[in-house]
Amino acid sequence: MKVLITGGAGFIGSHLTDRLLGRGDEVLVIDNFATARRDSLSQHSRLTVVEGTIAEEAVVSRLLSEMHPDVVVHAAASYKDPDNWYEDGLTNVVGTVNVVKAARAAGTRRIVYFQTALCYGVRPLEQPITLDHPLRPGDSSYAISKTAGEHYVRLSGIGHVSLRLANVYGPRNLSGPLPTFYQRLTGGKPCFVMETRRDFVFVDDLVDVAVMAIDGHGEGFYHVSSGADISIKDLFDATLKGLGMKADVEVRPRNPDDAPSILLDPSRTTRDFSGWKPKVSLDTGVSKAIEWYREHGVSQTFTHLRSSEAASTASR
């Protein structure tokens, strides 16, 4: 199979690239390396890496017209600066339009899209969140632009699966609380956690779903979720355990307007994806991430929420 992955050098994209190469697929990656690390991908005879942006229509059109991929996995996204609305719109909206139009012209049969759970807003109306929950992405530029991109994927007429994600963690991840905890704890800096609960899924479990989507499972919208929420304090404790450290942490009460829990209902995914269920426990997943951090370091972390929102949620 020929697969083009936008953002294929990023956290999720690089893990998916490795999996597809391992089973014999031909993979073309386009990435601008705004948040991706160049050591996430190794040279491979069936891998082509193009440094570029999906915001450039001519580049995207050329790559798809030359490759004619069977499937496009759209993992590229702008999220580095929550106040850079222009870049979010350019990459997540215009870039998605470029990808979708080029895929349609190239005869691509399927698009797999990665969407944020923030499409439901930071204060969802139900727990767990079902696929019937209304879309309320207005809390962040990232969510607004990613949801617009999802609409264009649906509008394309191409067979598609949009995976709405819980908090994905694991090796190569540089966003969210885990790399922040690691960076601060190993640097001897104090930490605090909010009294909230969130839904975490290990990257390999997500890749299992993505590969099945590439192979034709499912159609439409799905949640990729652990099916359970954990406290941010539990994640911090798992980080301490993985580091073999002891440390105190301040637990702060959540802000009145912050959701006590955000949990996605994965029942449709379990039904349509051969009984898929997450396999990796929190302790195992955190240990694997820490092993990677120790080897490669964490020089910077990213968030798609403003600092006050990131502090209150410490998770997305």
What does this protein look like?
This protein has 316 residues and is α/β, with parallel strands linked by helices. Helix content is 39%, strand content 18%. The protein is built from ten helices and 14 strands. A seven-stranded parallel sheet has the order 3-2-1-4-5-6-11, with helices on both faces. The longest helix has 22 residues, at 85-106. Residues 308-316 have low confidence and may be disordered.
Topology:
Elements: E1 2-6, H1 11-22, E2 26-31, E3 47-51, H2 57-67, E4 71-74, H3 85-106, E5 110-116, H4 141-155, E6 159-165, E7 167-169, H5 177-186, E8 192-194, E9 197-198, E10 200-202, H6 203-214, E11 220-224, E12 230-231, H7 232-243, E13 250-252, E14 261-262, H8 267-272, H9 282-296, H10 307-313
Parallel strand pairs: 1-2, 1-4, 2-3, 4-5, 5-6, 6-11, 7-10, 8-13, 9-14
Antiparallel strand pairs: 9-12
Keywords:
alpha/beta, 39% helix, 14 strands, 10 helices, 316 residues
> Total helix count?
10
pLDDT averaged residue by residue: 94
How much beta, percentage-wise?
15-25%
Number of distinct beta strands: 14
Structural Rg: 19 Å
Distance between the termini: 33 Å
Query: Helical content, roughly?
Result: 25-40%
Poorly predicted regions: 308-316
Briefly note the structural class of the backbone. alpha/beta
Task: Give the overall silhouette.
Answer: globular
What topology, given as strand order, has the largest sheet?
A: 3-2-1-4-5-6-11
H-E string: EHEEHEHEHEEHEEEHEEHEEHHH
Largest sheet: 7 strands, parallel
